Amino acid sequence: MNDPIISINGLNKTYQGGFQALTRVDLTIQRGEIFALLGPNGAGKTTLISVVCGLVNPTEGHVLVDGFDNVRNYRQARERIGLVPQELTNEAFETVWNTVSFSRGLFGKAPNPSHIEKVLKSLALWDKRNNRLITLSGGMKRRVLIAKALSHEPRILFLDEPTAGVDVELRREMWEVVRQLRDNGVTIILTTHYIEEAEEMADRIGVINRGELVLVEEKAALMSKLGSKQLTLNLHSPLTELPASLQRFELSLAAEGYELIYTYDGSKEEEGYGISELLTTLEREGITFKDLHTRQSSLEDIFVDLVNPKEYP
Question: What one GO molecular function would you report for this record (predicted)?
Answer without folding.
Answer: ATP binding
